């Protein structure tokens, strides 16, 4: 009797539930499309001619052209893109080399005082770049500060200068994020590895890292995303000559209605790698952005 | 067979051994030092120099006049400089406005995708994407294709849907709102992700119980979802604040801090002083003030993170 009642109630519920779910889907889709519209419109405009790009009402169906994509190669986009690739990949590689052992120690070894160090790291991530930009500019410039023993590093407008800063920028997030993944490695596994007498680096590289590979990959992606999109340091310290993609985009700031199709094509190229990476790590994104606090 | 047996035997002994012995002293510091030293050098030395420079009269256009002037830069900024207090107020309005609205929108999105419906994954991906868009590109797209008074989609839409009523020159007449719009568009996805994680940690039994008791959707949201979400809202607000305050690219691209200085925030003012006016001393003093103010938010944030860390242990 009881057993029969339950399914009947659920069945009785179903049409209403179904009905509600359709409305819910409709509302969610409409809001989602409105919110997503600027991205969609940007991508579409990249395939229009310059004249069609400023046409109103905007056409959503048109004859696509690849003209803009051909032309962005002639306006020097590619060297900036390559530079961005180098800066993001090299800085991320250094970040991982520094962060993996550190996060391992924080999660598993936990030497006395580890919590203070962990919080020191995160406080450096939140330090406003505005608070260090002035001396960085002086240190990086070719002449430097005559009153300092060091300086004149000659790193202005170089990828090396940006790599140094992006490593510092991504290190805290990587450490926090990796630590939260390493903590999930069962103690037994690590103890078993120790019994085999593996040196620490092998324990990390061969046992701990493979066990949390999705987390490590997500950390790598997040570091690349942050480095790729970074503007403040690049703008202040590397805005002359061949810089990163965000600086390339600045040439369109004053392009009032003239080069929107080219702007849109460049924009699409500029965001494409990051959007793909971001989609790939959607599930882990929140963990990295909340410093591993939210899972 | 005998070999296998003896191997198991040794393994057993070896596994038992560490438990019997006292735990060996914890290693760990050698693994931490490289990262720690790196962070110390790259972030702390420049910050100490910022403090040092902030006590100097030093304009790169007039290098000969350099000298130690104590707190004069701070005094000038806080009492005589016409740009400081407006920038302070702008920062407050823009950052608080953006964070609050991004949170509200993020909450809506999270609630929407927290229910099953056809295509939920696609809708969630659409909600997340603006956060992945490079801020410079986001700002350029909004400035030109969305907000431009002549060719922009928004004004075209408004004047078509509601002819002759409201189609302003957004960047000229609503500069703060325009800047906030881009911040909100970029950061609502971030809020959604954090809030969604929070919502998914609410036990389904509690929700079910409320539904059985006849709670409406709104009551369920108000009495169950919202109280549980407190911690996540707090974390989102604090993280959003520290991230948004440092984002100057949308401001530079949309308005260059203008018109006048109505969209100049404190970090943007540092850029203006140091890089446009070459005033190293003043820029440094401003940088120190920004760090002090940011530390208030950071202290709250670290407390929130610490609470979460404690719960894990």
Secondary-structure-based class of chain B equals mainly alpha
| Secondary-structure class of chain A | mainly alpha
Please tell me the total number of domains of chain B: 2
CATH superfamily of the largest domain in chain B: MetI-like
For the biggest sheet of chain B, the summary is: 2 strands, antiparallel
Unreliable stretches covering 5 or more consecutive residues of chain B: 1-24
* Number of continuous helical runs of chain A: 14
- The pLDDT mean of chain B sits at 85
How would you name the CATH homologous superfamily of the largest domain in chain A?
Answer: MetI-like
Total E-strand runs of chain A: 0
- For the record, the count of structural domains of chain A works out to 2
Strand content of chain B: under 5%
Strand order of the largest sheet of chain B: 1-2
Write out key terms for the chains shown.
heterodimer, A: 295 residues, mainly alpha, MetI-like fold, 2 domains, 14 helices, disordered N terminus, B: 313 residues, two-stranded antiparallel sheet
What secondary-structure arrangement, pairings included, does this model have?
The complex is a heterodimer of chains A (295) and B (313).
Chain A: H1 2-45, H2 50-53, H3 67-74, H4 77-109, H5 114-126, H6 133-140, H7 159-182, H8 187-195, H9 200-211, H10 213-229, H11 232-237, H12 245-249, H13 260-280, H14 282-289
Helix pairs in contact in A: 1-13, 3-13, 4-7, 4-10, 5-7, 7-10, 8-9, 10-14
Chain B: H1 2-20, H2 29-54, E1 56-59, E2 62-68, H3 72-80, H4 84-113, H5 120-132, H6 135-146, H7 153-161, H8 170-173, H9 175-200, H10 204-212, H11 217-245, H12 249-254, H13 266-276, H14 280-312
Antiparallel strand pairs in B: 1-2
Helix pairs in contact in B: 2-14, 4-9, 4-11, 5-9, 6-9, 9-11, 11-14, 13-14
């Amino acid at each position: 009797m009881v057993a029969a009642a339950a399914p009947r109630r659920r069945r009785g519920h179903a049409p209403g539930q179904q009905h509600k779910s359709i409305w819910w889907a409709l509302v969610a889709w409409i809001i989602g499309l409105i919110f997503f519209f600027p991205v969609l419109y940007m991508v579409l405009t990249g395939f229009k001619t310059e004249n069609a790009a400023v046409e109103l009402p905007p056409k959503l169906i048109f004859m696509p052209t690849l003209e803009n994509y051909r032309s962005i190669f002639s306006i020097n986009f590619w060297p900036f893109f390559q530079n961005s690739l180098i800066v993001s990949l090299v800085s991320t590689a250094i970040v991982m080399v520094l962060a993996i052992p550190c996060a391992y120690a924080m999660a598993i070894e936990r030497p006395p005082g580890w919590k203070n160090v962990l919080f020191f790291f995160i406080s450096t991530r939140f330090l406003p770049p505005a608070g260090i930009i002035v001396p960085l500019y002086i240190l990086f410039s070719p002449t430097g500060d005559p009153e300092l023993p060091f300086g004149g590093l000659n790193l202005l407008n170089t990828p090396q200068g940006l790599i140094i800063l992006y490593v510092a920028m991504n290190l805290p997030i990587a450490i926090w994020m990796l630590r939260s993944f390493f903590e999930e490695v069962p103690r037994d596994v690590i103890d078993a590895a120790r019994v085999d007498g593996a040196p620490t680096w092998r324990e990390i590289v061969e046992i701990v890292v493979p066990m949390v590979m999705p987390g490590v990959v997500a950390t790598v992606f997040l570091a690349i995303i942050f480095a790729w999109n970074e503007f403040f340091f690049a703008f202040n310290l590397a805005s002359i000559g061949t810089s990163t993609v965000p600086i390339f985009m600045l040439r369109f700031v004053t392009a009032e209605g003239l080069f929107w199709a080219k702007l849109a094509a460049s924009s699409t190229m500029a965001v494409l790698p990051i959007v793909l990476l971001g989609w790939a790590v959607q599930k882990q994104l929140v963990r990295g952005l909340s410093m591993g606090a939210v899972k | 067979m005998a070999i296998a047996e003896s191997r198991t035997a040794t393994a057993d002994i070896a596994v038992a051994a560490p438990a019997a012995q006292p735990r060996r002293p914890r290693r760990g510091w050698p693994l931490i030092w490289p990262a720690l030293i790196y962070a110390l050098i790259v972030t702390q030395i420049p910050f100490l120099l910022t403090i040092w420079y902030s006590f100097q009269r030093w304009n790169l256009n007039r290098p000969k006049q350099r000298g130690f002037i104590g707190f004069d830069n701070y005094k000038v900024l806080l009492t005589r400089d016409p740009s400081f207090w407006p920038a302070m107020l702008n920062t407050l309005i823009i950052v608080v406005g953006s964070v609050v609205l991004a949170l509200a929108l993020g909450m809506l999105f999270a609630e929407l995708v927290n229910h099953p419906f056809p295509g939920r994954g696609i809708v969630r991906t659409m909600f997340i994407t603006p956060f992945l868009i490079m801020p410079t590109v986001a700002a350029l797209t909004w400035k030109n294709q969305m907000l431009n008074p002549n060719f922009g989609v928004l004004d075209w839409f408004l004047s078509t849907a509601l002819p002759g009523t409201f189609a302003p020159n957004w960047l000229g007449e609503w500069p703060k709102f325009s800047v906030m719009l881009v911040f909100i568009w970029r950061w609502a996805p971030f809020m959604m992700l954090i809030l969604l994680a929070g919502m998914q940690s609410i036990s389904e039994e509690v929700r079910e119980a409320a539904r059985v008791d006849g709670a409406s959707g709104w009551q369920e949201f108000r009495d169950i979802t919202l109280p549980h979400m407190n911690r996540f809202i707090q974390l989102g607000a604090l993280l959003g604040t520290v991230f948004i305050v440092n984002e100057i690219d949308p401001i530079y691209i949309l308005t260059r801090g203008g018109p006048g200085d109505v969209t100049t925030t404190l970090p943007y003012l540092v850029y203006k002083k140091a890089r446009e006016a070459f005033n190293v001393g003043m820029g440094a003093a401003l940088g120190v003030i920004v760090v002090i103010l940011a530390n208030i938010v950071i202290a709250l944030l670290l407390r929130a993170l610490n609470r979460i860390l404690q719960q894990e242990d």
